[in-house]
Amino acid sequence: MAQDAITAIINSADVQGKYLDSSALDKLKAYFSTGELRVRAATTISANAATIVKEAVAKSLLYSDITRPGGNMYTTRRYAACIRDLDYYLRYATYAMLAGDPSILDERVLNGLKETYNSLGVPVGSTVQAIQAIKEVAASLVGPDAGKELGVYLDYISSGLS
Ligand SMILES: CCC1=C(C)/C(=C/C2=NC(=C\c3[nH]c(/C=C4\NC(=O)[C@H](C)[C@H]4CC)c(C)c3CCC(=O)O)/C(CCC(=O)O)=C2C)NC1=O
Asked: Does ligand 1 lie within 6 Å of residue 85's CB atom?
């Protein structure tokens, strides 16, 4: 089950039958104190998602072998599938950033993804490059602090794919 920072902290205290200790309380405080920042970033990202993905693709994949005949993004169908995948990554990373917890990524994005990519010949290295470009473009819109919060979850997807 996908969880958030609060349930994760409470569950780990509960398995020990204890109240939250000071490190758990610090984590909870950090989560609350960045709440507004994360909500504001999510608002900006949702209003600009298509542009973020488009710019990231222009920065990382366009005019490379990948978009030419024989490349995995060649043909409109595969190009569109790639853009759609990047849209998923941005949207789910935004959910995870709001939750302050990556479990939704394991559950709904990464589960079986590497196997799917391998069987379809989708290049993981180029996908990771595009995800890193999304990180840069999004950070330039939401600012460095929120960009870092979002970056944690985009990196999580990158490592899950690699
Ligand atoms: C929300 C969770 C979720 C994810 C993550 C997801 C990914 C996903 N991407 C797929 C395909 C694909 N993914 C890509 C992506 C790319 N090719 C490249 O060269 C680029 C580097 C890269 C984009 C960055 C392409 C081209 C296909 C189609 C491959 C094919 O059918 O030949 C497929 C196979 C089925 C299909 O074509 O729709 C899945 C399941 N589906 C989901 O439901």
From this structure: yes
d(CA 16, CA 111): 29
Q: Enumerate the H helices of 100-123 as residue ranges.
A: 103-105, 113-120
Question: Which of 77, 122, 153 best tests ligand 1's pocket when mutated (most atoms within 8 Å of CB)?
Answer: 122
For the Cβ of 82 lying below 6 angstroms from any atom of ligand 1, the answer is yes
126-157 tens-digit pLDDT: 999 999 999 999 999 999 999 999 999 999 99
